[in-house]
Amino acid sequence: MSVDPTGTIEGLLVESRRYPPNPEFAASANVNDPEIYQRASDDPEGFWASVAAELDWDQKWDTVLEWDPPKVSWFNGGKLNVSYNCVDRHVKTWRKTKAAIIWEGEAGEERILTYQELYREVNRTALMLKSLGVAKGDRVAVYLPMIPELAIILLACARIGAPHSVVFGGFSPDSLSDRINDCGAKVLVTADGGFRRGAVVALKENADKALEDTPTIEHVVVVQRVGAEKHPVEMKKGRDIWWHDAMAAVSGNYCAPESLDAEHPLYILYTSGTTGKPKGVLHTTGGYLVGAYATSKWVLDLKDDDIYWCTADIGWVTGHSYIVYGPLANGATSVMFEGTPDYPDRDRFWDIIERRAITVLYTAPTAIRACMRWGTEHVEKHDLSSLRLLGTVGEPINPEAWIWYNDHIGHGKCPIVDTWWQTETGAIMISGLPGLTTMKPGSATVPLPGIVPDIVDEQGNSVPDGQGGYLVMRRPWPSMFRTIWGDWDRYVSTYFSKYGPNVYVTGDGAKRDDEGYIWLMGRVDDVLNVAGHRLGTMEIESALVSHPSVAEAAVIGVSDELKGQAVAAFVTPRLGVDANDALVNELRAHVSEKIGPIARPDRIFFTAELPKTRSAKIMRRLLRDVAEGRVMGDTTTLTDPTVLEEIKKQYEDTGAAE
Asked: What is the pTM of this model?
């Protein structure tokens, strides 16, 4: 292992294990012709036009792409409706009796909506919105648990051309009011409450508090999820109406879908930054649907007989693209799950896979690592033989977690697609195609057809293979976001100013190996500068997790007079492992061996859990707040805020492990 003179770390990304496509899988894969990459490269606009033609358009476009950097538009002159493409067109075929959504509640409740039933619900919900005065262009805020009404309201908004803005049900009242006010929503759709690990989440109370300062809201529609017996709520006369009452007042079962310009806003989704006002990422109708549809077909390989499960929450972009819009545009059966992987028991995921005969699973590396920590006995209780494809999303996956996923969940027979993309990109950008790509554990592999990334240095020059840099995109793609709602200047300055208006800055660090495979190193603000050497937190975390005693790890940089930054690691040992000084020394030596002495953690803290959001992302910025003695930022999205308090107490009581 060596450090080269430019300060880059070599070694961790030298991954010798290879997993070529299974010939039987490849033979029937949706994409198995390698020429697809060349076609996309030779004629990008023609390529995307051919993909778009697989959707139903009311009016064909005049031009495929107009690009006046950074302003971009796709399929200008074209008209279509997303709701029609996700529902109506399937009702005209044999799929009308096929399950569109299979919902499982936390307590095991079940609701199955066929495409015909979904069609009826979406039409009636669209009529309900219209009865409340919602018209094309009006914004609708959505603050719901993971229940079928969440998917229904999104499709109903899309049907009438009212952009929706989903606010994750774990957000605080202040977060909700900020988002409502920023987008100027006219109607809020919420619920009396939701369930999480058996407890009621007080959504209506949170909404009421948020609505104390939201002057644009005229009506609040409330879904009765919990019920008055368990959780009575107050209804404000003249403003609040129960969903079931509003739906009962609707006359008719059909609402004609609006024929919308391809660039008509479809939704606004807020990204919560570490500081400053959340950014309202705006996605439009035509290009976004092309991206979500195509990537669901290519990467997730969705077929008519699949039972597909994405474990994300629709409050995040993954749920938008890969629970609702992408799968339904493909006519797939999409599973929605309200609960968590460890309630009521740690085998909940595997129980669902067995009972539902899930064929395609798309989940987060954090969930995989948690299951690793709990042990294989929970997996071994269940028959997972229905699975044929596995995917990961949300953050880079450590090689050892990839191997565990392959061996214990896929039993060595399921391709694994490790996907990289963002709220801003709208759809998967970097991923293997399961019928074509030889996978490497820990690498997102190669860009999808039509996607043109680069890895550059501080000056914007492409770096040699094997060196780290900033991941950027050099060409527009259909599902890219068009602006930050109401703030074009911030859009330009945040994403298109560092290297000029024709280069999108992702904010992520990456490396490309000598075979062209891309390895994500995490956010640029998670890249450490230790004695002049740039170290990706992902690199060090991967090294720690590759140790047999470690289930999870989060690495941050802390101020150091000598080095500039020192490496602090928060480590969750596997069950039954004795977390002692000997293990500290062993882990330090292990990281030194895997990467080099420069990456050796200066401080190691053992913790039973890491602070995570309900979308399963580790909140490293909160660990930095603890380490640097700052007032902690917003913790309302954490699965368990007490985890952070325990870490803080340990940090303050014991200091660095020496």
From this structure: 0.87
